[in-house]
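Running low. Any example?
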Amino acid sequence: MEYFFSVYIAYSEYQHYYSGAAANVVVMTDQGLRLQIPASRFRPFLSQLGIRGRFKLTTDTHHRFQSLMRVA
């Protein structure tokens, strides 16, 4: 399954996730589904501005994580 969504997390806000104070990022997909994604999955996308952009989450048929990639 594929889910598309947009994320904007300021760098200072993501520090809470990075330090472990918050374990998951909750996003709303384009289809209106609420997904809870481990914050560690976003670390490769962290920049000086934080995390921002459009992403595609791919899961298997059991809804287990397969990949997360920035699409825009």
